[in-house]
Amino acid sequence: MTTTQPAPASAATGHTGLTFKQAVGRRRSIRFFKPYQPVDKGKVQKVLEAARLQSQHGNAVLIRKAVVVYRDETDQETFAGLCEAMYNQPAAAQAPCHIYWTIDMSGWDELKPSLLKLIEVGALTSSYGWSEQFIDDIVMKTPDFNVLAGDRTFAEWLSAIETGLAMGAALLAAQDEGLGTALLTGQRARIGELLGMPENTTVAQIQLLGYPAEGEEAGGQRPRPDFEQLYFEGRWGNPMRRDPAVVAELEDAGMIQAAAPLAHRRQEIRAMAAMFGLPE
Ligand SMILES: Cc1cc2nc3c(=O)[nH]c(=O)nc-3n(C[C@H](O)[C@H](O)[C@H](O)COP(=O)(O)O)c2cc1C
Questions:
Q1: pTM (two decimals)
Q2: 8 lies in some domain
Q3: Is residue 254 situated within a structural domain?
Q4: Which of 185, 221, 257, 269 to mutate to test the pocket of ligand 1 (most atoms within 8 A of CB)?
Q5: Ligand 1 center–CA 147 separation, angstroms
């Protein structure tokens, strides 16, 4: 993403070179894809590169992994099985590319070497007390840091956060690449079998990639709770004040956009249903 004006949209690829605020503001869960327009592998790589650079606990780098499936390069039986495992949500079959974001609990084995690496490269410093001995004596013995030393539920929860951070970046990167994208839920165990995933790994969520068949606005920004319901200042329950001037600034920058439903959304949905032979 750039901080300057966005490059002109290309007819073939949609918007590219969005500002960060535009990428956040334009992202929607796209549920109708052009089934005939493949996704360039370079774009998929860029989505994965963005995910790879997201922050992670102790830089334990091997927890969040992904399997990319290109519909047109996968045998039909496997692809049909994957779509079925996503409860046959129609968008799954329409999207030419799927990313199966995964949590690999064995990645925690890398915690100590990853921390040592952070010391070696000067990210964690001795001025803050970091040393191999500190890692052994304190970090590895404290379940809040070394999650495998404690409650398994917390460990899984934190691992899901790791993969969630990657997915959040991947959604924005896809938007930045001019793609339509969405997360879908599926039957984790079945997908794991179909993709040959080892024990210790669980599918977190499936990201669809393709080009939207619906308008990019997809009917407007989706409902959210009020800012004040979500965020507190100083103390739980004390609503944080939302400054209208900041809202106006974000509207100008393209981050806060017109809320759903936009005019003609019903007609658009009807047209999409007819196009894909789906009920309205
Ligand atoms: C973890 C997760 C799972 C989701 N699973 C599905 C799904 O199975 N099917 C679907 O249509 N949308 C799914 N979504 C999309 C949400 O419904 C969507 O994000 C929400 O309605 C807000 O819309 P927006 O993403 O356009 O802002 C999922 C989103 C997340 C974060």
A1: 0.94
A2: no
A3: yes
A4: 185
A5: 28
